[in-house]
Design brief:
This protein is of the alpha+beta class. It is 27% helix and 23% strand.
């Protein structure tokens, strides 16, 4: 027993004041009212996630150079296979700079990393192949881990407001 409180004695009223065991009173609760006026609470977009996470600065710069930011901020949904900065660093020297100077070719390669629709790891593995926005098929392998063409998926099923992201350790190329 603490003070005058009795373990078996429960408060007897809730409104407008709360009774405390021995008859002491608490002031009435104040009601806080939250109002949202035409505000949409949502998750970040695919672009927001890439911009706000370390390791995607090359991808973000490439998407900007190719003029694809608006497309990847649209409602989608999209499945994006997102190469990390380390993945871009594996390309031959000068490749990224050359691609940035050739936006149509860069756009084609980036569109190869995007699929229309929102596909989780499990759904992709069941499908076995998906068709990119660029138009070429992308093979998916789930026999030993999770692979997309020649890349290993480092992180899967990152949810975005307009789709889903799977992080790759390599840039994937058509052909």
């Amino acid at each position: 027993m603490v003070g005058n409180a009795h373990p078996t004695k429960l408060p007897t009223t809730i409104d407008p004041r709360i009774s405390i065991g021995d008859g002491g009173q608490c002031p009435p609760y104040k009601t806080l009212e939250f109002k949202l006026y035409n505000q949409k609470l949502s998750m970040p977009t695919i672009v927001d996630i890439a911009v706000n996470n370390e390791g995607f600065s090359t991808l973000v710069a490439a998407v900007q150079a190719a003029g694809l930011v608006e497309a990847l901020q649209s409602p989608g949904p999209f499945t994006v296979f997102a190469p990390t900065d380390d993945a871009f660093a594996k390309l031959p020297p000068g490749t990224v700079q050359t691609l940035v100077q050739n936006p149509p070719q860069l756009g084609r390669i980036l569109k190869f990393h995007v699929v229309s629709g929102k596909y989780t790891k499990d759904e992709l593995i069941k499908l076995g192949t998906v068709v990119s926005l660029e138009g070429s098929p992308i093979p998916i392998d789930g026999t030993e881990g999770f692979e997309v063409k020649n890349a290993t998926v480092l992180a899967a099923d990152i949810e975005a407001d307009n789709g889903i992201i799977h992080v790759l350790d390599n840039v994937i190329l058509m052909g």
